[in-house]
Amino acid sequence: MARIAIDMDGVMADTAQQFINYYEQRYGVRIDKETLNGHPETGGFPHEKGIIRSFLFEPGFFRTKPVIKDSQEVIKALQEKYEVFIVSAAIEFPGSLTEKIEWLQEHYPFISWQNIVFCGSKTIVQADYMIDDHIKNLQHFKGEALMYTAPHNINVTDYKRVNNWEEVGQLLL
């Protein structure tokens, strides 16, 4: 059975929308998601990216991220055809570990704890496919790399791109 490694943040959990939500709560200004296109992940906001990056260390940031549309249904269907692993470079933000587990249990209860991998670097990951939104995670991957579209990678052209979970399903199911 072929194996798929799926990133969590920016692929299953909408990190860009969470930054927008937190920014609006703090500063009362709603940012349009399209204005983030082409900026680094914590860029594109009126305040410096250090302020935006600080949201990553706030309790609840990872626990309350919105689910990306259609990801639940497509991932559940992928499990019938593939060995599916959720792979997250979570160690940089140790406070996120419990929040990510709880988020997965709530939104993806059909994913076994045995299929969740938290790591520091994804260079160790071996699979047939990897779906990720960051170049750093795809550039050393030996299988077929699929770039999941996010505002920070909109201008990247080096990888096969999937824009949404409907496209993932069309490609892999």
TrEMBL record:
This is 5'(3')-deoxyribonucleotidase. InterPro entries: 5'(3')-deoxyribonucleotidase, HAD-like_sf, HAD_sf. It comes from the Bacteria. The active site is at residues 7, 9. Belongs to the 5'(3')-deoxyribonucleotidase family. GO terms for biological process: pyrimidine deoxyribonucleotide catabolic process. GO terms for molecular function: 5'-nucleotidase activity. Signal peptide: none annotated. Pfam families: NT5C.
